[in-house]
Amino acid sequence: MTDIRVLTADWHKDNAEIRRIRESVFIKEQGVSPEQEWDSDDASATHFLAYEGECAVGTARLLPNGCIGRVSVLRDWRGLNIGEALMQAAISEAERQGLAEQTLTAQTHAAGFYERLGFKIISDEFIEAGIPHIDMLRASG
């Protein structure tokens, strides 16, 4: 396996890398509009970047309320457990911040991935950005 590491990112300093990954995955691949992808929550979120060597290949964010989102890995690096490494970093940071519950809005097809990390489905399926989603919750401990 490749040498993957996940670091806490700075929204301002690492903005170009975060935007490059999210634009590739959400806007170009999945057809999410830029207006839906970029929101004011980014400024207050804790961001994470996954690196292979010096190349950023994945990202995620944790909001102050414990919501994890924008988990994305560039196509060529999928299947290498990078998403799991990003999620573990976000969960660890949430717990470090004293957030005993973490939530996320998952694309329905990814529910199994999040269930393996301890999340449970807490909503019916709904459409967001033209894609089926569900809300999920993980309680620490």
What Rg is obtained from the alpha carbons, in whole angstroms?
A: 14 Å
For the biggest sheet, the summary is: 4 strands, antiparallel
Distance between the termini: 30 Å
Overall mean pLDDT stands at 95
CATH evolutionary superfamily of the domain at 4-99: Gcn5-related N-acetyltransferase (GNAT)
What's the tally of helices?
Answer: 4
Reading off the top of the CATH hierarchy, the class of the domain at 4-99 is best stated as Alpha Beta
Question: What string gives the helices and strands in order?
Answer: EHHEEEHEHEEE
Stated plainly, the CATH topology of the domain at 4-99 is called: Aminopeptidase
CATH architecture of the domain at 4-99: 3-Layer(aba) Sandwich
Pfam families: Acetyltransf_10 (PF13673)
Organism: Thiopseudomonas acetoxidans
Domain N-acetyltransferase: 2-141
EC number: 2.3.1.-
What does this structure look like?
This protein has about 140 residues and is an alpha+beta fold. It has a domain at about 5-100: Aminopeptidase, CATH 3.40.630.30. About 30% of the residues lie in helices and about 35% in strands. It contains four helices and eight strands; from the N terminus they run βααβββαβαβββ. The chain has helices at about 15-30, 35, 80-95, 110-115, and strands at about 5-10, 45-50, 55-60, 70-75, 100-105, 120, 125-130, 130-140. The chain has a four-stranded antiparallel beta sheet with strand order 1-2-3-4, sandwiched between helices. Strands 5, 6, 7 and 8 form a four-stranded antiparallel beta sheet that branches. The radius of gyration is 14 Å and the shape is globular.
